[in-house]
Amino acid sequence: MSIHYIEHKNVRISYKIIRKNVKNINLRVTPDLKVVVSSNKRVKEESIVEFVESKSKWIYEKLKKFENVKSYDNNKKYISGETVRYLGKQHMLKVVEDKSNTVKYFQDKICIYVEDKNNFKLKEKIYEIWLNDRAEEVFKEILDDMYKKVEPYNVEYPRLTIRKMKTRWGSCNSKKSKINMNRHLIAAKKTEVEYVMLHELVHLIHPNHSKDFYNLLGILMPDYLKRKEYLDKRAVREI
């Protein structure tokens, strides 16, 4: 692994190069503001540097989007009138002083009932517990629906886990028949969560990103590229 730098609009950006057994040069900008490039050992470092420099504008803009999201998250106060994103839509947040310490969802409003309206940590904890519960219920329903698409390929029904992830929407362990889904996806549209779920389910058949993998994914979900585009380009700044 080696550290390099590029500049765009007088901003110095660091990135690291990791050598892996991959066919192409892969470039990732992660939500924690890291730039990572993976490439095969046979590719000359000069070629990698040239490639990254050609993507400097894209890297700069991607980092800015993640910074905006991070700033938004840090400024969340959990007060009435604030908006939160749930299943692809912005919802008005309403905070009510009540001893029940729970959350209720009413069409376009999400209500937090809390015994102390000024206790930020308590409000955050109540809301996070509710989001976790909703993610488990919604993602399980989506898994059931998407599993029907791969069941004819003799795929074992997988174990589902949900957790917050910084760099992936989902992951799959084909040997253990286990799928991990990013909790943050509860803010995305249901159709986009379906795409991620099916993507991981297809990995139970084709563990890598081979031509066969994408061919099957396209057969099972012909519009998967449109759903993926939403997550890649828009959801980054909305979720």
What would you note in describing this structure?
- The chain has 239 residues and is α/β, with parallel strands linked by helices.
- It has three domains: 2-74, no CATH class; 83-131, no CATH class; 133-238, Zincin-like, CATH 3.30.2010.10.
- Helix content is 41%, strand content 26%.
- A four-stranded mixed β-sheet has the order 1-2-4-3. Strands 5-6-8-7 form a four-stranded mixed β-sheet, with helices on one face. The chain has a three-stranded mixed β-sheet with strand order 9-11-10, covered by helices on one side.
- It is globular, with a radius of gyration of 20 Å.
* Shape category: globular
Q: Would you tell me which CATH topology of the largest domain applies?
A: Zincin-like
How many strands? 11
Multimeric status of the protein: single chain
**Proportion of beta-strand residues:** 25-35%
Helical coverage, percent range = 40-55%
Q: State the strand order across the main sheet.
A: 1-2-4-3
Number of domains: 3
**CATH level-1 class of the largest domain:** Alpha Beta
Order of helices and strands: EEEEHHEEEEHEEEHHH
Low-confidence runs of at least 5 consecutive residues = none
CATH homologous superfamily heading of the largest domain = Metalloproteases ("zincins"), catalytic domain
Mean pLDDT: 89
| Secondary structure category | alpha/beta
Main sheet overview = 4 strands, mixed
The first-to-last residue Cα distance is 31 Å
**Name of the CATH architecture of the largest domain:** 2-Layer Sandwich
Radius of gyration: 20 Å
